[in-house]
Write a structure and sequence with these properties.
The chain is mainly alpha-helical and 545 residues long. It has helices spanning 3-10, 18-24, 49-64, 85-95, 123-135, 153-159, 177-185, 234-244, 260-270, 306-310, 315-326, 329-336, 361-373, 377-391, 393-401, 403-411, 430-433, 435-438, 451-464, 471-484, 491-496, 505-517, 525-532, 534-543; strands spanning 36-39, 68-71, 103-104, 110-111, 139-142, 191-194, 203-208, 212-217, 224-226, 249-253, 276-280, 284-286, 292-294.
Length: 545
């Protein structure tokens, strides 16, 4: 059969050869230990935490080997593409400081010598390699027609790749030149399929950089490598692009393990050396019944990377939590190196976990509490303001117009302490956490039985109240009044005979705290008074319970 004539008939507009393309993409000059890897997201509307997990692994592998990381936008699936999604991808990557050596800017400028870095702009490249495979009898055109009452068979079969125990040779795999020309003369569309050499019973062994040697059933399907609209599915585009762009390691989810034999067959057909695969484990969550399930957009808001920025989680918190999931050794390293940046933690591909990590929001919150607790008041204020400027304009105006007041608020129980408070785990919670500063508290956490006692003590406190000049002065005044009013100033005596007292000094302080903040627990009351100011303090005390 004259495969070359068929190829020329199918690709009349393609005059370039694969040699022409290969000369365009010279082999990278790398040191022996340098890694070239990529992040290749599809612009489908939002960034899943699992996709970012892969990006972060790739970033660290490249960074730790002084290698190269590039960004390639895989936008060939037009049915799933969402307008503005590319901008979302860039925004999230920038937010988390994932910097690329090579990429295409949002306005279409390629940074690097191996572009275009957007797949829809590489269609002619794919056609050159598809033409080569057809000319060598390794691929063929498929003209499957619509059948009455059924979906377009061509579209159905080019989008699906279902594994079973039987080979599936396409009925169009041996069309003659005359038959192909006849289909084309009738204006029929076609897809290009790889002509598999397997029978359906072979097993393929391959090495995964995380999991070691694996074995899977060989591909036995004539699967699509070029769709009827001229765009390539993932398998073909990945093989061509990763080879031309000099990728040394492909980081992708372990769901691709079962299709790896098909991809390896494609590399062989193209005459390319296979690229090393790093199949990272997927991220799971525990369901209400305790069973594991993959974290999903449908059920889990935290599956969307925008969830963390919208709720004000520090960048370092999210990245350190992901490092915990990537490599269990990070937690021990962090304990031994509390002041170092996470960027000082090094790991290689062999140290990536093989066990599917469980996403735990409480663990993330604990990490985030520690990170925020290390910020001084001015840093916390700045981060809070930056968050508000993006997500709460009214709050941002209040914070910016009262800078010194809110820096003082952020300093409470934080600076100079061996154990700073660890109540805050994201900037989004701070407005509610400090709601008593913005407005008179509406809900008071006072016990019903304490109201009479509390009102009595507060009225006595108001008669002699003066704004204290120090925390020590404030506590001395409260202690003196409490003693006069029958409250115990010695906890040991109070525990021995509680019925002899109205309460202890802590109870008296609690009444003042409740009047000012509505809460039984809050940061230092003296500082809260300084922030509220004398008139507001008196007003809240006079309100009572």
């Amino acid at each position: 059969m004259d495969y070359k004539k068929i190829a020329d008939l199918l690709f009349k507009d393609i005059s370039l050869t694969t040699d022409d393309i290969l000369q365009r993409y010279p082999k990278r000059k790398l040191k022996s230990d340098q890694i070239v890897t990529r992040f290749a997201p599809s612009p489908t509307g939002y960034m899943h935490i699992g996709n970012f997990f892969q990006a972060f692994i790739s970033y660290n592998l490249a960074k730790n080997s002084d290698g190269i990381l590039y960004l390639r936008i895989e936008d060939t699936d037009r049915k799933r593409e969402v307008q503005e999604a590319k901008g979302v991808i860039y925004e999230i990557l920038d937010h988390y400081g994932i910097k690329f050596d090579e990429y295409q800017t949002l306005d279409g400028k390629d940074i690097g010598d191996y572009g275009p870095y957007v797949q829809s702009q590489r269609k002619d490249i794919y056609k050159v390699f598809a033409k080569k495979l057809v000319s060598e009898g390794k691929a063929f055109p498929c003209f499957c027609k619509k059948t009455e009452g059924k979906e377009d068979v061509l579209k159905l079969r080019e989008d699906k790749f279902i594994e079973d125990d039987e080979k599936e040779y396409d009925p169009c795999r041996n069309l003659s030149y005359k038959e192909v020309k006849s289909h084309l003369d009738r204006g029929e569309s076609f897809a290009i399929r790889l002509k598999t050499k397997n029978q359906g019973h072979e097993r393929i062994k391959f090495t995964d950089l995380i999991k070691g040697e694996l074995e899977a059933k060989a591909n036995a399907k004539d699967f699509v490598i070029l769709k009827s609209d001229g765009t390539p599915p993932y398998a073909f585009a990945h093989a061509v692009d990763d080879t031309l762009m000099g990728t040394t390691i492909v980081v992708r989810g372990e769901e691709y393990i079962s299709s790896t034999p098909a991809h390896l067959e494609l590399f062989e057909a193209l005459g390319f050396n296979p690229i090393a695969y790093c199949h990272n484990p997927l991220i799971y969550k525990l369901g209400e019944n305790g069973n594991r399930r993959k974290i999903s957009k449908r059920y889990d808001p935290e599956s969307n990377m925008q969830y963390f920025s919208e709720n004000g989680y520090p960048v370092e918190s999210v990245l350190e939590y992901l490092l915990n999931m990537i490599n269990s050794g990070f937690e021990i390293w962090r304990k031994n190196n509390p002041s170092l940046s996470w960027k000082e933690f090094k790991f290689n591909v062999n140290q990536i976990t093989t066990v599917a990590p469980i996403f735990d929001i409480m663990k993330l919150n604990d990490i985030s509490k520690n990170i925020i607790a290390q910020q001084n008041g001015e840093e916390l204020y700045k981060n809070w303001l930056n968050y508000a400027q993006k997500y709460d304009k009214d709050l941002a105006l209040i914070l910016s117009e009262n800078r010194e007041k809110y820096i003082k608020l952020c300093q409470m129980d934080r600076e100079g302490l061996a154990k700073p408070r660890k109540d805050i785990y994201n900037y989004g919670m701070m407005k509610n956490y400090f709601d008593y500063i913005f407005d008179v508290p509406k809900n008071i956490e006072i016990d019903e039985n304490d109201k009479v006692l509390a009102n009595d003590f507060i009225s006595k406190y108001l008669k002699t109240f003066q704004m204290p000049r120090s925390n020590e002065e404030w506590f001395a005044d409260v202690k003196k009044l409490a003693q006069q009013e029958g409250y115990a100033t010695d906890n040991k005596l109070y525990k021995q005979n509680p019925m002899a007292y109205k309460g202890n000094v802590a109870k008296a302080c609690e009444f003042i705290r409740l009047a000012l903040t509505g809460r039984k627990n809050s940061p230092t009351l003296f500082t809260i008074m300084q922030i509220l100011g004398e008139q507001e303090v008196k007003s809240r005390l006079e309100r009572g319970f």
